[in-house]
Design goal:
alpha+beta, Alpha-Beta Plaits, 2 domains, two-stranded antiparallel ribbon, about 60% helix
Length: about 240
């Protein structure tokens, strides 16, 4: 009975939907704030509440066109499509999310998770504004698990793969042969090498992004990194994990 009551377009239901949108967006944004991401608690809350508000405006206009504005609606002879409001939210969030995606050093992309998180927060807001209560709790749980709990699991999984991408800084371009020979000497197969320059202590040192596949039975990422780091010509080495 309570659920059916709150599905009606009444003031208590409107307040509840806005609060649910704020809580849902905040639940996602809290974890992002702890990680000091571009979009944090307030951003996610505002996106979710804004989406819910847009959906509520759509429902409000639909309700008014059926009641107080019915005579004007009949005279205007137009069709009302309430789905256009949430559709524009999805379009608009695309521009906002695109601004969080950045190209960082070493040919890596940052901000994809933040972007899709904003999209998910907007979708939660639309669901809250529509009064789709059952889906909100399940969706928040799934999104939080994917964005927070699964992140260390994903990193651990990638560290156990035989494929590895490393960034190596060295003193001279001629040292590249020594580095590749060390890798192949450990049974690794090199697939790709991209050269770049890295500034360190005012000097621009040659660097390379190397994609390689570790040999079976010698699959330790740390062992490969340690072997490269022990070379006298290598200034720095690190694994790149997207």
């Amino acid at each position: 009975m309570i659920s059916e009551y709150l599905r009606n377009f009444i003031f208590p239901a409107v307040v509840l939907r806005l609060l649910l949108a704020a809580v849902s967006g905040g639940a996602i944004g809290y974890g992002r704030s702890k990680k000091n991401r571009n979009a944090g608690l307030r951003t996610y809350m505002l996106v979710s509440v804004g989406a819910a508000l847009t959906m509520l405006i759509s429902l409000y206009e639909y309700e008014m066109l059926r009641t107080q504005w019915a005579w004007l609606y009949g005279l205007a002879d137009v069709k009302f499509d309430g789905t256009r409001f949430p559709a524009q939210v999805i379009n608009g969030i695309g521009f906002l999310a695109a601004g969080t995606i950045l190209s960082v050093a070493h040919q890596q992309i940052s901000g994809l998770t933040t972007a899709i998180g904003l999209f998910a927060a907007a979708s939660l807001g639309i669901a809250a504004g529509a009064g789709f209560y059952e889906v909100i709790a399940v969706s928040v749980l799934c999104i939080v698990i994917a964005m927070e709990i699964m992140h260390p699991v994903e990193v651990t999984f990638k560290r156990r793969l035989r494929m590895i991408t490393v960034n190596v800084e060295f003193e001279d371009i001629g040292d590249m042969n020594t580095i590749t020979e060390t890798m192949t000497g450990l049974g690794a197969k090199i697939f790709e090498i991209d050269f770049e320059r890295t500034e360190r202590s005012g000097d621009k040192l040659p660097a390379a992004i190397i994609v390689l596949k570790l040999a079976r039975g010698n699959e330790s990422h740390s062992a490969m990194l340690s072997s490269i780091a022990e070379l006298n010509c290598v200034c720095a080495v690190r694994e790149l994990i997207s």
